[in-house]
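Honest question from a wet-lab person: if I give you the sequences of every part of a complex, can you actually get the arrangement of the whole thing, not just the pieces? Trying it with mine:
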Amino acid sequence: MTSRHAPVIPPHMLDALARHGAGHLKSRAQNTLSIDQQFRQPMSARAKASLIHQNYPDSAPGAPARYIFDANHQTRLPGELVLEEGGALLDDPQVVEAYEDLGATYRFFHDVMGRHSIDGEGMALLGTVHYGQEYQNAFWNGEQMVFGDGDGEVFLPFTRALDVVAHELTHGVTELTAGLEYRDQPGALNESISDVFGVMVKQYARGEDVTQADWLIGADLLAEGVNGKALRSMSAPGTAYDDPMLGKDPQPAHMDQFVNTRSDNGGVHINSGIPNHAFYLIAMELGGNSWETAGQIWYDTLTDERLASDAQFIDFAGLTMAHATQRFGQRVAEAVMNGWKQVGIGP
Amino acid sequence: MTRFEDLSRFTRVCITREGGLVAAPGLMRPRTFDVVECSSDEQNALCHWLNEGERIGREASPGRGDQRYFRICLYKDRDGEASPDEELNVPEDAAPAGVKALWEEGRIEPL
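Yes, you can. This is the full assembly:
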């Protein structure tokens, strides 16, 4: 997949030639960089999904098609293919965790939401482990999920946390449905949706109802000695950690504490605490299993064509109330409205 | 004329690494460069890396899907909490070596 699009001369070499090359080499390299820039336009999410379909066989509905790669501590993606669907599990915990967690997330979306993989059309699930050196992150790059091993002092390998793996896969679902912009309030909704589905996948896999769940994101990631319990708390945003290395959890739980900032793409990981807390309050009010009522409403909203890519919190809240009424009736719709009101959103 | 042709109208260049799944404030680790204290060669190198960063930032979506990125802010004011006068975001995985060196090592990679 990647090699098909790799330029013959890597950009870093062109850059070196453009800076240090002799006479004609320098000017040619500068011209090539300029032309290269004109042609390298961002691909749409659908175009990227098509590429995955072309390069990696789909699966039949009801079963995932997983491909796990090993980056061998480099940053070239996707890396070396080490496990395909149905293959023998390796003696590598991160490979096994990525494979199993992607499977658990697939099963949730299929069995609970009726969605056949990220794009609804059986798109293969690609995950790369051992990315970079002591890499303290996991991400979705528009084509695949990528997991670092952490540094061992603050973060453990990111595949340890099922909710984190599900969080990243959900970024793919969001890109291929609502396509929420990754900035300001639509970006915070984008992040919150990943947290909401991440926490539901974990609860579903563990068979936990709303009172049994911890409502934490990434509780398995923090190393011993870190003063914190997780990356985020949906029940009490802003309380997940307070540590010399990490700083203090900056998430608000209410619109009164909404953070206006240009940092973090306009606070997408910060203000996501507000819709996160709304989901928690609504799920607790409704009781039972989060995925059976609140989760269905969130999924209906995410896949509703009326949800614009620049949606604000109030737009998203309004659609959840409409779907609550449509699918479950007035009592549930009132619980949804009350949840949003408690975080300062609503009429 | 590029946006970062001449740094003489700025006093400070600040770089942080932002975004990512964790996005904790302690991981941003800001670095600040005093433009006035930079030699002419260093200012030229800084301009080069900022322009390279802008070229790469334009063709990507810095931050999207929990991808980390470098946020570079340029200030005219020497102190204070004013908003930056110019800024750009550069995705970490595609960042030029000179942009990485600014944040990781606090130094200006010479041309």
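Two things worth pointing out. The CA atoms of residues 99 and 234 of chain A lie 26 Å apart. Confidence is low (pLDDT under 50) at residues 1-14, 31-41 of chain A.
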